[in-house]
Amino acid sequence: MPVASEHTGDFPSTSFIMDNVSEVLKSDTPTYERRDIPAGVYEMQVCNVLPREYFDKPDCYDEDTNNPRPDAIAKRLIPLEVIDGEYANERYHLAVYMEPDEAKYSDDDVGRKRYGTHRTKYKMGCERIAKLAQACGLNSIADFDDCAGKFVRVTLTEKKGWINIDKVEKYGIA
Fold first, then answer.
1. Among 112, 119, 68, CA closest to 98
2. pLDDT (tens digit, 9 = 90+) per residue, 108-145?
3. Among 64, 66, 62, which residue's Cα sits nearest to residue 53?
4. pTM for the predicted model, two decimal places
5. Which residues of 101-129 are buried (b: 16+ CB within 10 A; e: fewer)?
6. 48: left (phi > 0), else alpha (psi -120 to 50), else beta?
7. Residue 138 to residue 147: CA distance in whole angstroms
8. Helices (H), the chain
9. How far is the C-alpha of 169 from the C-alpha of 136, rounded, in Å?
10. Which residues neighbour 73 within 8 Å (Cβ) at sequence distance 6 or greater?
11. Among 67, 76, 116, 160, which has the highest number of CB atoms less than 10 A from its own CB?
């Protein structure tokens, strides 16, 4: 297996020794680092919001999430990290959709339908962040990171194949 050498001097070493590349590539080690967290109740720590905006595939050209349509609705992801148990250190990403700008949508039926769908996603995101803020003891928020570092107990439920936040409660000293 690869071995990273120790840090020496002012800069970290770039040394990385791997005796047999083929052996590493043939191993049955998982190629991913994240597991999906199933429905259940978990004690979690709220992490800082991820630094970029994300887009759903239907809002993008050719479902390429790096190529959003002009009327795409951006979402921000707030990681909630499980602090103990079987899923310790795994993260659930709470999606919060930004408010859609009605002026960006066409006036036809398709545009009105897309705007309606995006308003629904926005309202769902507002509800999620409100549950989180309330559990953190906040009456209002001005920034997604207002809850960062706090601990909460989260109840995740499965509905139509999706894992959703059902309830968020204060955990420890919030």
1. 119
2. 999 999 999 999 999 999 999 999 999 999 999 999 99
3. 66
4. 0.77
5. eeeebeeeeeeeebbeebeebbeebeebb
6. beta
7. 8
8. 21-26, 109-135
9. 8
10. 55, 56, 59, 97, 98, 100, 118, 121, 122
11. 76
- For residue 35, what pLDDT band results from cuts at 50, 70 and 90? confident
Residue 23 confidence (pLDDT)? 83
174, pLDDT greater than 50? no
Q: What is the pLDDT of residues 64-93, one digit of tens each?
A: 999 999 999 999 999 999 999 999 999 999
Look-up: residue for tokens 């709470």? 94
- Which three-class secondary structure state does DSSP give residue 76? strand
